[in-house]
Amino acid sequence: xxxxxxxxxxxxxxxxxxxxxxxxxxxxxxxxxxxxxxxxxxxxxxxxxxxxxxxxxxxxxxxxxxxxxxxxxxxxxxxxxxxxxxxxxxxxxxxxxxxxxxxxxxxxxxxxxxxxxxxxxxxxxxxxxxxxxxxxxxxxxxxxxxxxxxxxxxxxxxxxxxxxxxxxxxxxxxxxxxxxxxxxxxxxxxxxxxxxxxxxxxxxxxxxxxxxxxxxxxxxxxxxxxxxxxxxxxxxxxxxxx
Length: 242
What we know:
The protein is mainly alpha-helical and 242 residues long. Helix content is 72%, strand content 0%. Mean pLDDT is 83; it is low at 1-9.
């Protein structure tokens, strides 16, 4: 049994590394010419996909009988109702952030519009921070934007951020009692593994993959919710929610 559990833990760790790498890849491509020729359409695809995911998460939380009461107040917690995976919303908010910063830097707007965009970005930041992975993807996305075209600077900055995250994880391990084994801590507090995106960026040739067919462009928007529904069902089956 212990061997099976160890194998499952290793598989989970590898899977989490893959997820961290893919999430950072999405942040890298969030504001490149290949995907931002129509920023409005791109944003609305991500935003509406995020709304759809909230619908899936709400349905799952209600159907699985999840406790939706706040642990301190004992009252209904709306945020617990929304709880679940939703990277589409995070990507939509990141796109808005970078889009706003880019618009300000180009300087082709009035002073009134500049103030309005800055105010909008300030309002946007809290929502981005509390979104899935937003707190960790925010600095990574800003690095990709400000250092785009300079892999050495990207690699140095990403390595610095991930090094700090690893240091934080190790600090928790050595200072918090009964936190688990080092392997468990590194497995579940694994945001530092976003560094694994660097080889993919280095070897990216700047060209669009595939044939450009519509189904290839839209595949991710179908795959993402479907694969999460499958994972939710497997989770409920394994823990006996059926």
